[in-house]
């Protein structure tokens, strides 16, 4: 009976979203993007079952169910445990504790892992569509690049669907960036959007504190560029440098690992730990990496390239990575096309701050996470925005070619 109820309930949600949330976009694009997200969420479970023999995604659901059962079905006990008690089995894992507690209310109302996966994938799609509508409202000619990057780029959708922390972190980032761009472009923000954006900031800080810090700094730089549009270059540079320095120091308060004196050691320790747990054929290698700022900066260019384009197609890895390697070929081709048409690239503030966000996250994540498989999952946080930026010129070129042939 519960499966019939959830099927009916999900159908109502799909219809309501298509009717009230789709806007003037094609219903076929809307439903195709929604279906792709739902299928990817289920495939996450299938792949973890078959390749990892279970893994995190099933453990998260199991932990949430055990957490709910430990409260004996009493609302007061549940609320007390939710806000004031740790889950003993998770020990010193605050991000997992937060994620498991966050999904526990949904677990109460879903009969099994697979139904919850559909709801989590639906949430991911809603966030992606929100970001997409903000971009295409301001730039209607970017619809096809946005569809490609936000709805249909395989690994980005796969790793941000289903019951994964990466899903919820991506949802938070999508809503935050969408609302930030809306404010920057002068679009009207409803009260509910502001509330959701504030909640998403809290979620992102809890799940990916480093991403929240970088996003806040880049967001401030973008907003500042709007306020300083009529000022001299020297005033702009002084203001931008001040925000960067201030942001660098304020990020210390997001997490102890972000303290200036601790940051290189944090990256190095995480890098070393992942190397020890990984196969030698499945890792990035850096030149004399050590826990100093000098070493980190010397390896940063290589890390940015790795965070965006590796593994390369010729690297000897397991067959399961062939899809990721083919995607990276597509990314390289798109970048080459942009370089070929570089005169058409406008260095506007939104592009500059977007690339700053992408390069910073890709470099930071690649240095601290040298395993190719984990890197492919973590890069889903910034991959849609990178794909969008590098797809604009190629899509416009194709469109112009079609128009000229007509």
How many E-type strands? 0
How many angstroms separate the termini? 55 Å
User: Would you tell me the structural class of the helices and strands?
Assistant: mainly alpha
Radius of gyration from the alpha-carbon trace, in angstroms: 22 Å
Mean pLDDT: 86
Strand content: under 5%
Low-confidence stretches: none
Roughly how much helix do the residues carry, as a percent range?
Answer: over 70%
Silhouette:
globular
Our count of domains comes out at 3
Order of helices and strands: HHHHHHHHHHHHHHHHHH
Number of helices: 18
Largest sheet: none
What would your notes on this structure say?
It is a single chain. This protein is an all-alpha fold and 406 residues long. The protein folds into three domains: 1-207, no CATH class; 217-258; 261-406, no CATH class. The protein contains 18 helices and no strands. It has helices at 2-20, 27-51, 56-69, 75-84, 94-108, 113-138, 143-151, 154-158, 165-184, 191-207, 209-227, 233-250, 263-277, 293-309, 322-340, 349-368, 372-378, 383-405. Helix 2 crosses helix 6 (113-138), helix 11 packs antiparallel against helix 16 and helix 16 (349-368) crosses helix 18 (383-405). The longest helix has 26 residues, at 113-138. The termini are far apart. The model has no long low-confidence stretch (mean pLDDT 86).
